[in-house]
Amino acid sequence: MGFIERLNESVKGLKIDSEIEVSPSIEKVLGLLDALLQTKAEIPPVDNALSRFGNPAFVTFYDKAAEMIPELLKPIVPNDSIPEISAYLVESFGNRRRIDYGTGHEANFIAFLLCLEKLGVISSRDYTAAVLRVFVKYMSLMRELQFSYWLEPAGSHGVWGLDDYHFLPFMFGSAQLIDHKYIRPKSIHDPDIIEQFSKSYMYLGCIAFINSVKNTASLRWHSPMLDDISAAKSWAKVNGGMIKMYKAEVLNKLPIMQHFMFGTLIKFEGGSTVENEDEGCGHDHHHSVEVDKDGKEVYAMGQEHPECCGIPIPSAIAAAAAGQSRRPIPFD
């Protein structure tokens, strides 16, 4: 969390396209993400018209990315650290078995960046570029995967969440807008502002994305939490609320953190080792999957999932998200 807050602090008042220092290490990480974007472009979704849930082509991308990443990391990190760092990066694309994505996977990308700092690959001088260049490019990759492969939202709160998939672009994006002369929290309701500034500020970019995939015209209907937040007096208040909310709704949630991995770089004292994580969620139940003619599991169908492992709804890109009961938020 300390690392996330330092990243958050580094982008206050800055636009995505601001002139910033980009070190050779950051350039290498950007090159890695470019290679993954190219790989995604080479793996189109398969014909999946009968289901609104995850496209099985995601499994092909996931396996190819997992194969490529150790080689792509060789110019960036020491060889003996590659297996550990690769695990965080591969996990940041979503879950191969369930074909879903959520804030826990997003947190794994931050863990990947934190490992780079612990290894001395990046330093505090790289924080701004890590957010405005690297994290923004990671977001571009994930939006491509979400649109193309219809990733299910992992643990989405439906309309009572910020976004079906992400949290951190709202935190970093609100930091970018602190003390902006003209754009206020309520400005998210102005289509002209969204159109003009969505490429410069992550928060507004997320609003543009949500508006593009939801079926109704008003945030009040499809994203009431964001609508409520827009009544905050300042972006500083929004940003402080986002930090509190991230601690409570992501890092403090067992359904998310029970799947988080620890090793020599990010350590945790206690707990126990879980084997064969890829065979399931580690719990005494099974997910519903579809099988092909050879009996091979190809993708999660989204039937009833236990609460710890997601909820049975397709992405908003494929269908309208489901609503849940309202909860208090730290933005009043």
UniProtKB/TrEMBL annotation:
<dbReference type="GO" id="GO:0003755">
    <property type="term" value="F:peptidyl-prolyl cis-trans isomerase activity"/>
</dbReference>
<keyword id="KW-0963">Cytoplasm</keyword>
<keyword id="KW-0697">Rotamase</keyword>
<comment type="function">
    <text>PPIases accelerate the folding of proteins. It catalyzes the cis-trans isomerization of proline imidic peptide bonds in oligopeptides.</text>
</comment>
<dbReference type="InterPro" id="IPR043170">
    <property type="entry name" value="PTPA_C_lid"/>
</dbReference>
<dbReference type="GO" id="GO:0007052">
    <property type="term" value="P:mitotic spindle organization"/>
</dbReference>
<dbReference type="Pfam" id="PF03095">
    <property type="entry name" value="PTPA"/>
</dbReference>
<dbReference type="GO" id="GO:0000159">
    <property type="term" value="C:protein phosphatase type 2A complex"/>
</dbReference>
<dbReference type="InterPro" id="IPR037218">
    <property type="entry name" value="PTPA_sf"/>
</dbReference>
<keyword id="KW-0413">Isomerase</keyword>
<dbReference type="InterPro" id="IPR004327">
    <property type="entry name" value="Phstyr_phstse_ac"/>
</dbReference>
<dbReference type="GO" id="GO:0005737">
    <property type="term" value="C:cytoplasm"/>
</dbReference>
<dbReference type="GO" id="GO:0005634">
    <property type="term" value="C:nucleus"/>
</dbReference>
<comment type="similarity">
    <text>Belongs to the PTPA-type PPIase family.</text>
</comment>
<protein>
    <recommendedName>
        <fullName>Serine/threonine-protein phosphatase 2A activator</fullName>
        <ecNumber>5.2.1.8</ecNumber>
    </recommendedName>
</protein>
<dbReference type="GO" id="GO:0008160">
    <property type="term" value="F:protein tyrosine phosphatase activator activity"/>
</dbReference>
